[in-house]
Description:
Blueprint: H1 2-38, E1 45-53, E2 57-58, E3 63-72, E4 76-83, E5 93-94, E6 101-105, E7 108-115, H2 116-119, E8 125-135, E9 149-159, E10 170-174, E11 177-181, E12 190-198, E13 216-218, E14 223-227, E15 235-243, E16 255-257, H3 276-282, H4 288-301, H5 305-326, H6 329-349, H7 352-376
Parallel strand pairs: 2-9
Antiparallel strand pairs: 1-3, 3-7, 4-5, 4-6, 4-8, 8-9, 10-11, 11-14, 12-13, 12-15, 15-16
Amino acid sequence: MPGSGIRFGREQEAKIIVKAKPILRQAALALALALLIAAPAAAELTVTIDSIVPGSELADGDLATISWTIETDGESGIYRVEIDGDGAPESGRLIAASDGYGEFNGDYSDSSTIQTDEDLVNGDGEYIVYVIAESDESGDDDDDDDYDEYASASTKLTLQNVPYAPLGLSAEAGDARLFLRWEEHDDRDLNYTNIYYGTSPGDFTGTGANGGDSPIEAAVGSEYNLEGLENDITYYVRITVVDDFGEESELSNEVSGKPVTVSGMSGLSGENGDCFVATAAFGDYDSAQVVVLRQFRERVLRPSAAGRALIRLYAQHGPTAAALISGSAALRMAARSLLQPLVGLAWITMRPLLLVILLILLTAMLAARRFSYRRIS
């Protein structure tokens, strides 16, 4: 019957499909296995740091040799040795030595030289050194853009030097205090400053200051007000700096000063330096005239040796003069009359452009006056 013939064909077709499924699965598995065998294996690139000689802690002038190994599945490429960065090619600073850059072909071992004076240039502290390998998957050694796979290894170096002694320490006397100033230190890992003081040369076992007995631990900086001292007694001071590793510098130069009682006005010297006479004359440490003179002292006088000598001379004799004029209205008026032109000169001196303009105007006025005189004559 036609109907049963159709049903028979469909059954046969189903049986054929069922029998074919295992064969198709086996064929697909065989094809995948063949493709896997034929496909090139992904290159494996690794970098290992083997040793650091003489070690990871260095001082200025030292050299360190870093030995390293590159392992790869027959790949070629270039290597770089960089300071800091993040381990990616060219993210840090290439070391100065010629062995910090080169080519490799297959597994490769070598060493590179770290020069503290050339490579560790940011002062004391920790540095990260990266050995970076870039493989050349294109096979074109001449095009750095084709180095698109890289690996890196890192190690840490520590640059540690004993801080040098602070420079340029000076002391200015105030009422029951000394104003200490020195040059800013350029070590980046300083922790604090030690203030050594006493009442005889070379003896720094002083007691009684507001900050405590000698030595006083003060913040890193370039100034300190040594307060709570006895007037009319000469104090001798030296300072040191201590870094994060606990290394203390040599002592600075020794300075001395004798705090004095300033009568007639309290706080005549202010909190930040000696302006004895000007404060007594103008009646206020924060008056405009005194502020100008303080700025002139810090910006113009203090940077030079001659200026600092002048400041020290003034610090020695200023309190006596201030005490003399502070009790007399007539003397204060006379002092203001003498100081006012100096205030104006100091103000102009700190403004070079204005000084140049004034000189040009003065020259023009003199030239015009001379020309007018010639025309009249």
